[in-house]
Each structure stands twice: as C-alpha cells, then as structure tokens.
Amino acid sequence: MDKVIKLDISKTLGFINQADINNQAALAKKCNEALHDGSGKGNDFLGWLNLPSSITDAELKDIEDTAKALQAKCEVIVLVGIGGSYLGSRAVIDSLSNAFDWLQRDRKTPVILYAGNNIGEDYLVELLAYLKGKSFGIINISKSGTTTEPALAFRILKAELEKTVGKGEAKHRIVAITDAARGALFTLATKEGFKKYVIPDNVGGRYSVLTPVGLLPIALAGIDIRQLVAGAAYMEKETAPAVPFGKNIAEIYAVTRNELYKKGKKIEILANFNPKLHYIAEWWKQLYGESEGKENKGIFNAAVDFTADLHSMGQWIQEGERSIFETVISVAQPNETLTVPTDEENLDGLNFLAGKRVDFVNKMAELGTQLAHVDGGVPNIKVEVPKLDAYCIGQLLYFFEKACGISGYILGVNPFDQPGVEAYKKNMFALLDKPGFEKDSEAIKKRL
Ligand SMILES: O=P(O)(O)OC[C@H]1O[C@](O)(CO)[C@@H](O)[C@@H]1O
Questions:
Q1: What residue owns the CA closest to ligand 1's atom 8?
Q2: Which of 136, 161, 265, 425 could join 76 in a cystine, given CB atoms 3.0 to 4.6 angstroms apart?
Q3: Rounded to the nearest whole angstrom, what is the distance from the C-alpha of residue 260 to the centroid of ligand 1?
C-alpha cells in the first residue's frame, strides 16, 4: 500500500472554482517561502518547521530511555498539561492505541491519565481516589510553567505522590517538560532534581507535538516515535516551498479553505468516521483556532465524530445555515478485520450485509454522507490517511501544521501568537485576588 496521505478537494468545486484556487497559487507559495525564510509575522516561532528532519538519534534515544524507566516504575502516569501541552500526545496516543486501552490487563505500558486540562474539583478528587494504592508517576508539561490549570493539578498530584512514596522516590517519578531556562516549573524542577526536557523557545505549544512534549508521552504509551517522526519528515519534504503548488497538499488545503472562507463558508467542521480520531480533531481545533482566530477574522473550527454525530449534528449540517464546509479525515484501511455474521431469523433485516466487512458499511456511510452534504450545500475536502499507524499519523500532524502556517499568512494574521487567551486569565486572576492584580480586582468587582 502506498503509505501517503492524499488530499481531495474535488467536492469543493462548484462552490469555488479551480481557477480561483490556481489564482492563489503564487500567494500560497510566497506564504510557504515566508515560513522558510523567516520573513513573515511571528518569525521567532518557526522552530517546528524543521523538527522532523533535525531531531537526532541521541534525542530520540534519551526520550525512549526515560519512557522505559517510567514504564518499569509506574502502572499509571498522569500527564499534566493543557492545550498544546497535552492535546498532541493525546491525539496520537488515542489514535494508535486499543480503543479500550485502560481496561487491558497484563500491560507492558502504564495507563495514561490526564489532568491539568480543567479545574474540576470532582475530577481531581476522583483521580486521587483512583491513584490510591497504585504506583504512579507524573509528566508535567507547561511551556510557561505558570498556566493555572496544570500548576494547580501538579501541586496536588505532587503532594500526593510525595506523601505516598516519599520525596526521594517521587523525584524519580516526575518529569518536567518546560522552558530551557525560565519559569516556575523550570525553577522547581531544577531545585528538586526532576528529569527535565526542554520546549524550544521557538516552538509554540500548539506546534510542539514533535518535541518531547508529545514524544515522551507517546513513547511511554508504547508507540514507535521514530516512525512518527519519519512520517512527519516525509511530509516536511512533500510540503516544502520547492514542491510545485499542484503537488503541495499543504498549500492546496490552505488555499482551498481560504477561498471557501471568502465565499462565506466561515465554519470548518473536521469530521472523522473512526472514534480513535476524536482527539486529533481536538488538537486540530486548537492549532487552527488559536492560530487564525484574531483581528476579528478567521474560520471557526468545529469537529464531529461520525457516524455518531450524524444522529445529532447531522440535521444542522444537512439543512442549517449554509456557512459551513467539511474536512473529512478518511482512514482507507482499518487495522483489523470483522465481517457481518448471518442471522437465521434476520429480524433486523441485515442479512443483505452478511459476509461484508464492517468497514465496507462505514465507507458507504462516509460516501453517502459526503454526497448528501455536498447536495445540501456543504463543500467537502477529503484528507485520506492510508491507515492508523505512527508513520501516517506523523504525516498528518505535519501536514496540518504546515498548512496552518501557510493559511494564517494567506489570511494576513500572525499564526504563532494567541493574545486573546489572556483576557479570561486576567479576569480570573482579578477575581481570585491574585497579588499584582489589585487594580483589576477592584474594577472587575464593581461589575458584579
Ligand atoms: O504550556 P503552557 O505554557 O502551560 O500553555 C498551555 C496552553 O496555554 C496557552 O498558552 C493559552 O493560554 C496555549 O497556547 C498553550 O498551548
């Protein structure tokens, strides 16, 4: 099988013209070049561009060794982080693991649980209750080291771990992934002697999945990070500015979505027909939403899991306001095989499917949905992934990252900052009476 991701925009034609797309080829090329020559906005955050081709064998080996050490010590690992500090790992781990991973016995790898991505009190209490009596470790990921959600969860989990195994052992079960030289987590990790990994200065959180931020948890889950990086490196080459527009799927995707946006298609829905891809969509939402939603413009990024959501959001997609387009991640081949059995009584009337693969039914649902949605006025982009393995997922991650950078430049925004995220933080700190926010506290309390 040809293990290469394919992009099909044929079902957007009719809503936009091939000529409109071709007219944007030069601009897309210019934007791609601007990423590579560092002449565009946010050019101090372009370190992700060459991560796949520049990561060394020694770096990968070090990550694999740390993963092995944690696997030997811990039956559970809590991954603490929010946004780009956890979505990439979770996206890859979920897409490549058994759907019932946490229920598997005789495990070779720890159960991975997540914390620091919400402030739910019940969530944390229930997590602590689950961890009681289990040998657990913590990977704490925060580039800034000051994000409230992970800092709070880490404080609680670290205290629990130290109470259970003592400070001396706890430090061998905690890994910190943070800034190279600054920040609260850096200082704490240095003082306490935790194993540290660096998030490079020039890589933003949402582009960090191919740094230790993603690679360590992914390796810990038993996934081949060398294959993941190899897939990404392949896509790095295939989306380079020297690759002609007609073959450059990152440029084509970036142009197509911007042309649709110009035609009033302001919402992009990422759809999948495989439940393992749910967190790929969560990762993608942050990547595109945080990169493009600024200066009062940008496509709104939504996601659906089909066929489940065809029985809920399907109605809206088919007949609601015509301001949407769909991008479907289609997995060509499942990893397993299951055929529909014959049933003597055939009360459900499904014998016409007997002997057929379940995936055949899924594919017909996918095709039927595509045609129905296109008929209903929803342009459709298809991203075909040959199969769910580390090499293909590596390609997918880099494809979306590269296209996002190009797309942001086409839109005219800085795709590497996120100034809007500060507004809620400022209000929350003011409401919490955080030292340094006295004036804001006074002002906000007058509004209540
Ligand atoms: O890694 P950090 O600094 O804790 O940030 C986590 C997330 O929070 C944001 O900075 C937004 O607040 C995201 O861009 C980032 O992925």
A1: 83
A2: 136
A3: 29
The reply to whether 425 belongs to the active site is yes
Model confidence at 410: pLDDT above 90? yes
- Which atom of ligand 1 is nearest to 178's Cα? 1
Is the same domain home to 201 and 288? no
56 and 202 both lie in a single domain: yes
Q: Which amino acid does the sequence have at 21?
A: I
Model's pTM, two decimal places?
0.98
CA distance 103 to 204: 34
What is the per-residue pLDDT for 183? Answer: 85
Q: How many domains does the chain have?
A: 2
Tokens of 32: 């791609």
Q: Say whether 290 is catalytic.
A: yes
Answer yes or no: is pLDDT of 1 > 70: no
Specify if 66 maps to a domain.
yes
Residues 6+ apart with CB under 8 A from 138: 77, 78, 80, 154, 157, 158, 161, 173, 174, 175
Q: pLDDT per residue over 61-91, tens digit each? A: 999 999 999 999 999 999 999 999 999 999 9
- In this predicted model, what pLDDT tens digit does every residue of 237-255 receive, in sequence order? 999 999 999 999 999 999 9
Asked if residue 232 is part of any domain, the answer here is no
Using only C-alpha atoms, the chain has a radius of gyration, in whole angstroms, of 23
Q: Which of 146, 418, 426, 428 gets mutated to test ligand 1 (max ligand atoms within 8 A of its CB)? A: 418
